[in-house]
Amino acid sequence: MNRIKQLCAEADITISELARRIDMQPHALRRYTRHESEPKLALAKRIAKEIGVGVEDVLGVTSGNVSATAKTIPLYGAAQGGVGVEITDVSSPIDEIEAPSFLNSVTDGYAVYITGSSMEPRFRSGEIAFVHPHKPVRAGDDVIVQIESDGKRHAIIKQFKRFDDDVVVLEQHNPQKQLTYQKSEISALHSVIGTYVS
After folding, report:
1. How far apart (Å, rounded) are the C-alpha atoms in residues 17 and 27?
2. How much of the chain exceeds pLDDT 70, in percent?
């Protein structure tokens, strides 16, 4: 169990200040201080360097139990509020997490927090979807659809149905309906190959 909260107290810095120093959102760092999740090696190294302690101190493990070879991938979070409540901002990651074994050898693999209820019961808000950007997309696959808007890249999770001429046809489950996008609107269409409930 990590010791981030205790280490901050000992170093006389706030969680918000530590988050600022390591270029992370305070609410994301507080997930670890509440032990809702445990930091992966890359994040633990950043925290350790900033506070001036060992990685083992941050992770709360004995020396020798930390794997130096764990691969991490970027984790993208939900856009905030309004109409975009079911849209994920993939302009820049909010965190890093350890890659599952099936993404260990994949270049540019990433993960996104699922938001909203449009894909229930297949996916629920708060789950993490793991994405393989190089796997060919087939009809019936769950996909992350990336769309450029106002200088940012956003993403939605849907089920891929087909390509028709210059459009991409997708489906959502709740409520069930088909959605059509112009191919020119879509920056990327990537396969979801696994999920994790955080």
Report:
1. 12
2. 89
d(CA 118, CA 12): 44
Separation of alpha carbons 78 and 116, rounded Å: 9
The band of 106, judged by pLDDT with boundaries at 50, 70 and 90, is confident
Residue by residue, DSSP assigns 23-42 as T--HHHHHHHHTTSS---HH
User: Tokens representing 131?
Assistant: 């994405």
Write out the two tokens for 150: 């106002």
pTM of this structure: 0.62
In whole angstroms, what is the distance from residue 133 CA to residue 106 CA?
8
Task: Report d(CA 9, CA 55) in Å as an integer.
Answer: 17
Mean pLDDT on 81-99: 66
Q: Dihedral of CA 125/195/33/47: which sign?
A: negative
